[in-house]
Amino acid sequence: MPLSGSPARRLRSGHTTVLPTMASGDDSPIFEDDESPPYSLEKMTDLVAVWDVALSDGVHKIEFEHGTTSGKRVVYVDGKEEIRKEWMFKLVGKETFCVGAAKTKATINIDAVSGFAYEYTLEINGKSLKKYMENRSKTTNTWVLHLDGEDFRVVLEKDTMDVWCNGKRMETAGEFVEDGTETHFSVGNHDCYIKAVSSGKRKEGIIHSLIVDNREIPEILE
Hints:
By secondary structure, the protein is mainly beta. The chain is built from 1 helix and 20 strands.
């Protein structure tokens, strides 16, 4: 049965519970007023959940339709249909697909909560979305900068020292300096490098800073 309540909002917690006639509680999905989906919500009457997933190559939007009468399941990634199953006798189960340039594994779990209520949870690489993002915050650094009228999102993967900018893995050159290392790359005509220095504290480990045109860019938390 299609949702008669508000259409789905973006979720970062990784799960939402939905009744077949209306969304329930604080997890009820609704789009923010300032953002328009790339297709008509009238056509997506079974939309039950939307998640934002921040990966190295960008922030990806995952949308899930679930028809609780027909069992229909449709998964969209960044507006592109990845999975469509029109008739499913079993209303619970899971759907697995890939997200982003690195083909990161994602799974939507469909579980019956009670009566006709269903809970939808998203896993990334086998971990709950919340756990995955907590772990990711420890293994990556992210910066957002504005250059030449354009926004850039730079991500450092600390375990591999790969640098991503707006969805592309950058060509980099590493260099040892007196107090640490520098990883150099270019964004347009701008010289950039990520400097790694020891914090001197075991808990903090290595501190990474992004320098663009000799100016330090503040890190953001995703």
